[in-house]
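Quick one: structure tokens for this chain, please?
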Amino acid sequence: MKFEDFALDTSIIQSLEAMGFEKPTPIQEQAIPILLDHRDIIGCAQTGTGKTAAYLLPVIQHIAQESPQHINTLIIAPTRELALQIDQQLEGFAYFTPVSSIAIYGGRDGASFEREKKALLKGADIIIATPGKFIQHLNLGYVDLSHLKHFILDEADRMLDMGFFEDIMRIASKLPKQRQTLLFSATMPPKIRTMAKKILIDPAQINIAISKPAEGVFQAAFNTFDNQKVPLIEHLLTAKQVSSVLIFCSTKRSVKQIQQALEDLKFSVSSIHSDLDQSEREKVLLGFRNRQINVLVATDIVSRGIDIEDIGLIINYDVPRDAEDYVHRIGRTARAESTGTAITLINPDDQYKFRKIEKLIGRSISKGQLPEQLGPGPRSKSNPQRPQKDNFHRSKKGPKKRS
């Protein structure tokens, strides 16, 4: 199946082609026809299945056909990171359409609040918001939701875990009864099903399992203390014969620190994080794609959606917060039936999270032995007596350093 088979607007197809989307994922194949037919959906789908495009593409199609003058779609997400991610994907999918959007989340200044208020008053087509921040605007009385057509809850189980059930129900109570409601959740505990019964009408149900890492990825890990991580990265970059390395961090602060540390060591390195605007990110990615930059340090902002061939080594500087994000991160290597290596650095506090990753992917990941000059690392809390094995091929060449 191809995206053209959904009879999407030519401007959407043009955007998909520009972004390198070739064929729909299973959830997109199942969900897009249902959503184009205006039915409600309850979808059990984890991060990594393509669910964001599954609901954004039909919404963009409806808006492009109807040219609404009011808020058309409200997407509620549990965190500002996810809200930004959805908004960034939306910008790509809707690039050649007149669809407008804004992400609304906490932690910003008064000027940002005024921009959000202006967008809500003007009636941006799509609002992507965290529950608490949207409630703040709702309480001030100027948000008109009377013409809303689509209500989307993304990662609903995570929102309930964070205590947003009452906020979600309050938002739902302000919406027109005649609307399309979509609920996506990685799990379906009883409270999610209770919510679904209250806010959805005769929903179609879709269940999609998360994709597993590609067979071509050699996965390994090191148990390390934090002060051993940068020296270990230097060792790995020097020892492994790869020309393109992607290092993931969970915070932009860590990204900046690692970039500086590797620059001091004379590696050809740059970084991407949320402080960079889109043009700056594109410039960095172009340099990385063209091998003008050999090492890219990034937050999870690039763990989805980029398609760069021949990334030989992925290093997880820290264990990702969510097990599903691990699959996204290491999925940047071994693309198009190639091979690659993914190495994760695990400090004592992250060992529990790493075991969740092993449970998710259904296998134990081999642990390497730290180089002798770094000293011993922490023992595994699950098996403190188990010796660590060194499974890494070492060669004399690695990413080039700056002269």
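The domain at 3-208 is CATH 3.40.50.300 (Rossmann fold).
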